[in-house]
Write a structure and sequence with these properties.
The protein is of the alpha+beta class. The strands form three sheets. A five-stranded antiparallel sheet has the order 5-6-7-8-9, with helices on one face. It has a two-stranded antiparallel ribbon with strand order 1-4. A two-stranded antiparallel sheet has the order 2-3. The protein is globular. The protein starts with a helix and ends in an 11-residue tail after the last strand.
Length: about 200
């Protein structure tokens, strides 16, 4: 549908319903798709969904990646957002700078590796949401959208070696060894006092 016609429909729906009805999202998709692709290299795409709201079927949104670079750009954006969310307002201000300088580049290397390994089916890769709070280790996982199986799990563990204060050990686990082995990304020192819970 031509862009001018979509815009006219948005205006007409808004005017005739006095703004009480929101125009369907598919009238915005091409513009949003172009903006997303221009800004970050990954594309927001509409996939049919069975989700209903007041008997009206709504489209759901899924990210499609054109190549390894666009996947890594999206995944790194998510990695940073979810890490900051996990750190919360008490831990975050203390370790964010060191995390961005020392750990994020290591995460990027791992994401690039998995993107390269799965390049043929890169559109099936997705990033989990909702990092673990409290004392949970989860930051985010990379999983296969079709199978729902995790491929890599990015975690952070609290450590307290004798007489050495408290540390955050950033690491990841791989599906190929059943998530048993720890692959270290980096360690950040907290101090001698026990750190607050995640997301506090």
């Amino acid at each position: 549908m031509p862009r001018w016609l979509k815009r006219m429909l948005v205006v007409l729906i808004t005017v005739f319903t006095f703004g009480l009805v929101t125009p369907p999202e598919y009238l915005y998709v091409d513009d949003a798709k172009a903006d997303k692709q221009h800004k970050s290299g990954y594309i927001r795409d509409v996939v049919p969904s069975t989700t209903t709201f007041e008997d009206a079927e709504l489209p759901s949104i899924h990210f499609k990646f054109e190549d390894v670079d666009s996947f890594v750009a999206y995944a790194m954006d998510q990695a940073e957002k979810q890490s900051v969310e996990k750190f919360g307002t008490k831990i975050g201000p203390v370790i964010e700078e060191e995390f961005r300088g020392a750990v994020l580049p290591e995460i990027e290397k791992v994401l690039t590796d998995i993107g390269t390994e799965r390049e043929q089916d890169i559109t099936n890769l997705e990033i989990s949401e909702h990092p673990a709070s409290g004392y949970g280790e989860k930051i985010f996982h990379v999983y296969d959208l079709q199978s729902g199986q995790d491929l890599i799990r990015f975690h952070v563990r609290r450590e307290n070696p004798p007489k050495d204060g408290h540390w955050f050990n950033f690491h990841y686990h791989k599906a190929e060894d059943n998530f048993q082995k720890h692959y270290t990304l980096g360690k950040i020192y907290w101090n001698r006092n026990m750190p607050p819970k995640w997301m506090s």
